[in-house]
Amino acid sequence: MTNFADRHIGTTAETQRIMLDALGIDTSDPSTSLEALMRGAVPASIYTDASTGSATGDGVIPPAASEAEALAELRAFASRNRVNRSMIGLGYYGTLTPSVTQRNVLENPSWYTAYTPYQPEISQGRLEALINFQTMVADLTGLSTANASMLDESTAVAEGMLLARRASKAKTNVFVVDAGAFPQTKALLSTRAAALDIELVERDLAGGEALPDELFGVFVQYPAASGLVWDPSAVIDAAHVAGGLAVVAADLLALTLISSPGSLGADVAVGTTQRFGVPMGFGGPHAGYMAVRQGLERQLPGRLVGVSVDADGKPAYRLSLQTREQHIRREKATSNICTAQVLLAVMAAMYAVYHGPDGLRGIATGVASKAAALGDRLAEAGTEVVHEAFFDTLTVHAAGAAALVGRAHDELGILLRLVDDDTIAISVDETTTRAELDAVASLFGAKSSAFGSLPRASLRGSLSERSETKRAERAQRVEATALPTSLTRQDEYLTHPVFHVHHSETAMMRYLKSLADRDYALDRGMIPLGSCTMKLNAATEMASITWPEFAGIHPFAPASDVEGYLEMIDQLESWLAEVTGYDAVSLQPNAGSQGELAGLLAIRGYHLANGDTHRTVCLIPSSAHGTNAASAVLAGMKVVVVACDELGNVDLDDLRAKIASNAEEIAALMITYPSTHGVYEHDVVEITSAVHDAGGQVYVDGANLNALLGYARFGDLGGDVSHLNLHKTFAIPHGGGGPGIGPVAAKAHLAPHLPSHPLAQRATHSGGYEFAGGAVSAAPYGSAGILPISWSYVRMMGAEGLRDATAAAVLSANYIAARLRDHFPVLYTGEDDRVAHECILDLRPLKEATGITVDDVAKRLIDYGFHAPTMSFPVPGTLMVEPTESEDLGEIDRFIEAMIMIKGEADAVASGRWPADDNPLVNAPHTAVSLIAGEWTHAYTREDAAYPVHSLVAGKYWPPVRRIDQAYGDRNLVCACPPIEAFA
Prior knowledge:
Belongs to the GcvP family. The glycine cleavage system is composed of four proteins: P, T, L and H. It is an enzyme of class 1 (oxidoreductase). Its cofactor is pyridoxal 5'-phosphate. By secondary structure, this protein is an alpha/beta fold. Among the domains are: 122-300 and 339-351, Aspartate Aminotransferase, domain 2, CATH 3.40.640.10; 356-487, Alpha-Beta Complex (Aspartate Aminotransferase, domain 1), CATH 3.90.1150; 548-780, 3-Layer(aba) Sandwich (Aspartate Aminotransferase, domain 2). It is built from 31 helices and 25 strands. A hairpin with a 5-residue loop joins strand 9 (305-309) and strand 10. The protein is globular, with a radius of gyration of 28 Å.
C-alpha cells in the first residue's frame, strides 16, 4: 500500500532521476543519487548520515503511520478529552458555527490553502472577506478604522499598549491596567512591559480608584472579567487630560446592545471575534481585532485592507499602507506583527454577514436575558449576585465555592470559574440551554423551575430582601437583561448591504463560492513562494480539527478534561525537540513573530538570571527577516547589523569586528539557517562558536527548517533557541495569511525561561522541564486547536518521510535553478553551486536590458495561471522561488516553461516587436472583460494576452481585476466596505 509520504511528496523516484540527471548527478544507483545532492549542498560539518538517524528522531518519532492509523490515534486522544459545557468565560465562549461557513470556509481548501494577499489581483475574494471583517469591527466598536485581525485578544491589548506609547506625547512610562482585566491579559502585559521598561499600574477603575498623575495610556476591560458593565467614559476623559490614550478591550457581541468604545471616547478598541462562530479549540486559533480613531491609522500594527482602483478605474481591494507595517521598520519597529488570523477573521466576518445586525442583536439579547434570568433565580434563592449590571457573566458570593465548582463539574458536566474561596463567576453564551441554567440554579439551592415560565416582573418582585435602592437600580435595566439603560447603544452598525442580503443558506453558499472563485490558492496550482513554504495541507491532517473533542474545549478547562490534548501536546513537543536538537519546546506562541519574541525573552531571562544585565546587544545579519530586528527591539535589545558578503553569507570579518566592538554587551545572534538567501552557509559552526566565545546566545530562526529537517539539527550547529513555523515546515495551512503557530524550542539552560501561563493545566512539559518565563499568548498552548495538523504530519511522515521531504524540496529548487540559470541569473549559491530549498532569480539585468520589471513578470505569471514567487525579498528586483516537496515534475516544468516564455516576451519588447508601453507584460494581468470589451487596439493579440500556452485553454484562471494602482489606494485611504454604487 502506498504510504502517506509518497502521497505528500509530489515527485516520484522516476521523476527524481530525471531531475537529478538535469543536475549532472549520477543516477545509476538510485539509493545514493539523492543523497549525493544533499551531501553536496549541506556542509559536512553539520551533515547527519541517514544511518545514524539522530537528525530525524530515531526512537523518539515512531515509524510512519497510515492515514487510517493516525486518525485512529487521534480518536483515542479525543476520547480522553471531556467536552463539558463551559461557563468559564474570560473571553472564550461556546458558539454555533454556521454549517454553511464550516463546510465552505474552514473545510474548503480554496480558503485554507490560500496565501497572504500580497498579489491582490488574484486575492480579491479573501480581500473582500477581510474588508467585511474590518467593516464589522469598525462599526461595532464605533471607531473609524480596523485592521485585518490580530493574533488573539491579549496580544492585541499589548499591541494597543505599544500603540499608545508611540502615539502619546506624555513623557512617562506609566500604563494603567484595569483591575477588571482578564488574568491572561494581565500576565501577557507584564511580559511585554518588563522588556520595554514600561511601568504597569493596576487600578480598580470601575470602583472609582483615581488614575496616576502621569500616564501614556490606560486599559479598560468592557465588560469586566467579573461581568460588570460600567461606563468608563469618565476614566477615558481623565486619561486624555493626562495626555494618554485609552485602550478598551470590548466584547463584540455585547457591543450590539451597549455603547460602543468610540462613543465613549476610546482611542483604540481591541478584543477577540471568537464568539462569532469560531470554536474555542482549547485556545485558538481565533481572530483578535484592533480598531482606532481617526488619525491613528498609520500607527496600526499588522495588515490593513483598503480599496483602490485597477487599470480600468474599477474598484479593487489590496493591502494598504504597507510601509506602515511595523516590522518593515526593522530596529525602529514598535511591533513585530507581520501576519493576521485571516481564515478565522473570514469565519467571524461571515458569521456577521449570515446573521446580519438584527440576527446578532437577537443572539446578544438571548445571551443577556439568559444571564439576567439566572441572576434573578440565584438572588431569589439567597445567593448574593455581586453586580447589578452585566451582559453574559455574573459573579456570585457563595460559601464553599470550590466544592460547588467541583460538584458542577462532576455531577452536571458544567465548568464554572472559581474566582476565590467565596466567589464564583458564571458565563452564558448562545449555546447555553435553559436546562443547563436550571441545573446551575439548582446547584445554588434554587427551586427547580423551567426558565421562562415566570414573567420578569414577578422575578423582580420576589426579591423582598433587596433594599429599595437596589430595586430602583434594577428597574433601570434594559428590559429582560441586566444591562443599564444609560449604556444602551444608540448608533447603528452593519448598515452595508453585504450584511443584509446573504441570510439564506443558498445565498450564503453562493456568496462564499463567488469569493473563492476570484482567488488563486493551492487547489488551483503551485504557489512557488520563497521563504513561505506553501506545501500540501493533506485532508487527513485537517480532518480532526472540527471534532468536538478538539474544537469544543475551553483553554482553561481543568486538566482532567483535557488528558488527550495534553498527551498529544507532550508527544508533539518531544518530536519537535528531537528533530531540532533541542531539549524543551513551548507550543504557546501563536505566530512565528511571537516565537521569535519568546526565544529572545528566554535569552534575556537567562542573562538576567546570571546577573549579566549589561548583555543587551543582538547581532542580526542585514539579510534577515524584518521581524528579527523588530522582535529584538521588543525584547529590550539593541540591534547591531552584521554585513553579508557578495555570496549572501554572513561576513565573518564584519561579525568578528562587531563582536569585538560590543564584547561585553553581546546578548545574542539571530541567524536564519539555511540563510535568508536560500543557501547553506558552510561557516555556520564558526559563526555560532564566535558568539558563544563572546558570552552570547545563538538564536537560529526556524523559517527554513524544511531545508534541514532530517539532515542536520539547529541544536547541533550551535543553536541555543529557535522558533519553528508549523505553518511552513509542519503542514499547517496559511489560510490566506493565518493561522500560524511559532513554537519555541531551546536547550536545557534556557528552558526555565520559556513561556509559562497563569492558567496552564500543568507545570511541567515534555522532558520534565518547568517553564517560568512570561506568557506570550492568551492561551497556555496557543492555537492548540490546529496542533492535530502538525501531529498528524509528523506521525504519518515518520522520521524517514521527513528526511525524504527535505531532499525532495531541495532537489526541486535546484532543478528550477539549473533549468532557468541560462535565462535568469541565480543570485546566490553555496560553495558547490547548489541552493537549498529555494533560489533567487535576479531580474535586475532583465529590467536593464528590456525595461520589464519584477512587477511586470509577477503580474504576467497570473496570465500563465501561476501565483508569483516572492518579490524583491531579500533582494530588491528579484524573485525568490520555492517549489516545495509537494509539487510534481509536471507542475514544476509548467512553471519553468512560463518563466522561459516570459523571458522571451521581454526580449520581444527589447527588440522592438512590441512597444515598451504596450505589451503583454506591462498590461498584465488580463481579465476576460479586458479582452472582449470594445475594439482591440493593442500591439499584441488577444491570444498572446490570454493563452500564451495552449494548455491554458482547458482550464484558464481569470483574474477578476486588472493591475491595481497601489499608490491611489494609499492617497485615498478607504478601509471599509465601499458603497454598492462603486461597483456599478
